Amino acid sequence: MGSIAIGDVSVTRVFEWSGDIATREQLIPSSNRPDWEAHKSLLVPDFWDPATDNVKLCAQTFVVKSGGRTILIDTGIGNDKDRLWFPTLHSQFLDALTKAGAAPEQVDLVVATHLHTDHVGWNTTLADGQWLPTFPNATYLFPQEDFDHWNPEGHDEPPGGPAYSDAFKDSVIPVVHAGQAQFVTGEHVIDGNVRLVPAPGHSPGSTVIEVASRGESALFTGDLVHSPMQILGHEHASCFDEDPAQAATSRDRVLRQAAETHAAVFTGHFNVDKAARIARKGQRYILDSWTPLN
Question: Distance from CA of residue 132 to its chain's centroid?
Fold first, then answer.
């Protein structure tokens, strides 16, 4: 767990899980091993294991405190949930959230960058055999386009494979039934410091959260970037991108913004207590430096 101030806004990273779910070739099929080898100093040991060729990923939540409100960005995998790509967890994540000043009853807003399994898990917890909203006083902001894409009829039993439908059934639909969901499309202002901006491609409703306060800025990019190799080569899609070409366009735009504003960049799956700083080098981007979280 580490924290950083972005002007008057505080950001705390709360770790949930880390592990290997894919090899380099599986996760980013268009990249090649020689390129990864050339950037070993950046990738090893935090992001890639050359011996196994596995990419190292994590699940995490960011606690953002702005304007007197406590905001969560993404909620990880969750406990007691049988998932296709991830282990069934029984973690002390809520204790960690509480230590970060975000006990369940203190959370005002839960923001999903998108509605994939590993970003909505702690939306709900199991109580007496039912999935109930974890954060009783919170409004949950869901991308309308994602909801419509995976559950176009709004049914309790959404179509699609278990990789996505299971998350809808236990982590999205119960929030809707509880009356705590607010569907968002296009740009959405949370307050004078925080806003949501569409960045489609990884999913139809993928969103980047922008923070700007007193001349400082941060970007929470969700799954636009799974590995630093997608910064060095923004054209490289992940195997989870719904629309690879659109994702590449969104990634280019967001990385350009990060370079121009020197924003602190927080991704969904970098397992480091650091914010990335991006720079432009010709038509490419580089990971210029890291800013440690305290």
Answer: 22
* Sheet containing 207-213, strands listed edge to edge, beginning at the edge strand earlier in sequence: 188-189, 194-198, 207-213, 216-220, 264-266, 274-281, 284-292
Structure tokens at 259: 């370079």
Predicted local confidence at residue 165, as pLDDT: 79
> What predicted TM-score, i.e. pTM, was given to this entire model?
0.95
Within a 13 Å sphere around the CA of 46, how many CA atoms are in the beta-carbon half?
14
CA atoms within 13 A on the CB side of 2: 11
For residue 238, the SS3 value is coil
Q: Which two tokens stand for residue 61?
A: 């939540």
Task: Convert the pLDDT of each residue in 153-199 to its tens digit.
Answer: 777 776 666 667 788 899 999 999 999 999 999 999 999 999 999 99
For residue 45, cis peptide bond before it (omega within 30 degrees of 0):
yes
